[in-house]
Amino acid sequence: MGRGHPHDLRTTLLAAYGLLIGWLVALGLLFHFWSADRLLRDAEASNRALAQAVGLETEAWLQDAIQGVEALARMEAVRRHDLRALPALFAPAFSARPDALMLFLLDRRGVMRYHYPEGPGSTVGWDFSFWNYFQAAAQGNGPVLSKGWLSPTTGKPVVTIAVPLKDEQGAFNGLVALNLSLERLSTVLRTVAGGSLDLRLYDATGQLIAASGPLIPLDPTHRLDPGEAVPPGLSRDPEGRAWVATSLFLPRTGWRILVRRPADEALATLYMFRRGLLLLLTLVLISGFGFWYLLTHQALRPLEAIAHFSRELGEHPGSASAAPILRLTARGDQIGHLARSLLWMQAAIERRLSELRTLLDTGRVVLSSLETEAVIATILEQIQHLLRVPTCALFTLDERTGWYRVRAVRGLSPDYARGLSFHPDDPRSPTMRAIRTGRPVQIADIEVEGYPELRERARREGFRSLLAVPLQARHVPPAALVIYRPDPHPFSEDEVSLAWNFANLAAFALEHAVLYARSDMLLQQQTRRLETLIEHLHDGLIMESREREILYMNRRAAEWCGLEEPCAPGCSADIAYAALLPHLSPSEEAARLLERTDEGTVEVRWQRDARARELRIQSLPVRGEGEERLGRILVLRDITVERELDRAKSALLSAVSHELRTPLAAIQGYTTTLLAEDVEWDPAARREFLQIILEETERLAHLVSNLLDLSRLEAGALILNRQPYPLEALIARARRGLRTNTHPISVQLPPDLPPVDVDAARIEVVFRNLLDNALRYTPPGTPITISAGVADGVVVVRVRDEGPGIPPEHRGRLFDRFYRIPGQVRSSGAGLGLAICKGFIEAHGGRIWLADEGPGATFVFTLPIWRGDDGRADPGGGG
């Protein structure tokens, strides 16, 4: 298990641990952000509520002052600027407000007319028209609240409330105003804030006019943009301290209240949770490192050692070193149990490998040796070695006596082994029980479980337990392998399985010997069959070795070579070739082929005495797996029939083309002549031309009919429509299609000639072909005789002419397809007529031949007699 591998257990555990820490941090951060947002919202809500309370109190204070000034502005003396009456009016109003600094009256030009209190430093007569509150009052109708400003006499922040005065026409006639001290607001803010909050009050221009802290009102460094709202949430001052700030706009005055709460006070719970979360994460990380250290040293590294050992055990079972895991076997936990299990597995695998090697070696011996007794002895020896038993025996059926006896034994005394025999039906023998059931039978302690006879034999030979395993084979009688131990011992499943494997090897050895004997006998039979088959081949066959020695020659090859007997194996092939070459022409090509060792074919003419044949000699090299030449096979094939067939086909093509061209040319010529428009033919000439066209057409039809008949005969597709028919009527039908006016034809039939059982159309073709040959090959005027009679239960028909006859050398091939006698001047056919006659006659079960009668030629054929429904010949002359 390599470090950092994507499938490393360390990577998986680290990923799981990281996932746990990640979820913990994510949940903590989620709760932190949620708590922070909730606490900020609570702090802001508290700030807003406090700002609203302060704002209400401030507006109420200002509203009360504004109402007092408005009350003065409504007085007639004030409206008329009655300076004598003003002290009496201003004094009680000033005394009623402890935060009042001055009540005063300005005329419409902004000149101070009166102020209370009166005293030194009077400003009566001064021009105040440049003040913003005067300008605002002169242009408006309602009370005006000035921005904060420092009193020049007291140096304290002041705000002025001015109410414009209007005459009867509504024109501006000055104003009455009150200067209020803002120190009271700072005192109120300090009282409300206590010691932690920071409360600030800004006028409509953004000037600081009151604060709960040490800030100086109207200090230009602490201004607030009137149009800018303080953003909610945390903010930091220049010193870096965090605050939760909330601002509130007072719509009646245009002032703004700012409430700031220290963040460490508002978020104290959150900061405590954050410190707790960090502490928890620190503890988890420290615990994780400790857990990782223990996991690595107590689990992962031992598992790596175990995995490395198991991989070596799988790849090299016999050489895997157990040293890395030996110290782990002392542990009492699952790691130690796994290590001990692997060591036990290693021992089991080594034991199994030893058994497997022994089985393979024994199997190799079984396969490589035909000495059955030696093989069985080896098997018993290996059983003794692997099962650590001193005694074992193999029992087989003695087919002569029908009893089971010891075939081979190791560890038993010879006298005891010779005396052991069991009948197949013995119910007391565990060996016979195993053979009958086909399953192993064991006796763990013969003294307890065995029969008295078996117990007595066991005491005598010194064994206490046994295991009988059946040998099952298809081609040999059942047998049994019996294993004996000197101590009480229940055989385990592994021991039974191992014994059964050796029993199968023993069965295979016995079957191997039997099958080898049978296969040897079958091989000899097959060899004899093959030799017989090759001996009766129509082709000659010569097998020669790489050293050009004859390995085999059949009789047909000996006949081609002119030898009375085939050459014996080991004879030089040159002797056979020397006897063959004189009969071949051209012999040079054949000699070159016989001398070569590669593949090749040559066609030559073979002649011996009066016999001449066409011969094809084919050389086929025989090669081994590595393309090594082992010898060759020489095949000598008679291709005379093939060559004659090729020549016949060529003759057919030539004849058919000629036979087709001649009538077609005549038909075309006479048809063109009749169709000519520039010649007017008389009826006699026209009839003569049409008669010639008809004859040539009949000639074409006759040729096509012959070809079709021949095709049906060769394909075996000829179907006969057999019916009883008078022979005289068949002859008359055949004569109607022929021009017989050039030869006298005599028909000589007995009056009692029975009807024939034939296909009339086919036999008509036979008569027409024979008569057509007689008409064409005999001089005009010579007679033609047709006669018939009954002989040997058939009708024998003779067609005889008195022409020149058939030369003797052509009589043997007269009925072959496409054969025509050379030199016949009148011969214009395709050589199919007599072949078709032979096919039709033989299809009726008869035969046709050329009789040795002269002069002229006499063709004889037989036809079946119609037997009638009762199977007897009809004696009548027709039907």
TrEMBL record:
Keywords: ATP-binding, Cell membrane, Kinase, Membrane, Nucleotide-binding, Phosphoprotein, Transferase, Transmembrane, Transmembrane helix, Two-component regulatory system. It is a multi-pass membrane protein. It is an enzyme of class 2 (transferase). It catalyses: ATP + protein L-histidine = ADP + protein N-phospho-L-histidine. Residues 655-867 form the Histidine kinase domain. One of its GO terms (cellular component) is plasma membrane. The keyword ATP-binding applies. GO terms for biological process: osmosensory signaling via phosphorelay pathway; regulation of DNA-templated transcription. The chain crosses the membrane at residues 12-34, 277-295. It is found in: Cell membrane. GO terms for molecular function: ATP binding; phosphorelay response regulator activity; phosphorelay sensor kinase activity; protein kinase activator activity. Its EC number is 2.7.13.3. CDD domains: HATPase, HisKA, PDC1_HK_sensor. Its main location: membrane. Pfam families: dCache_1 (PF02743), GAF (PF01590), HATPase_c (PF02518), HisKA (PF00512), PAS (PF00989). The keyword Secreted does not apply. PANTHER family: SENSOR HISTIDINE KINASE GLRK (PTHR42878:SF7), TWO-COMPONENT HISTIDINE KINASE (PTHR42878). This is histidine kinase. The lineage of its organism: Bacteria, Bacillati, Chloroflexota, Thermoflexia, Thermoflexales.
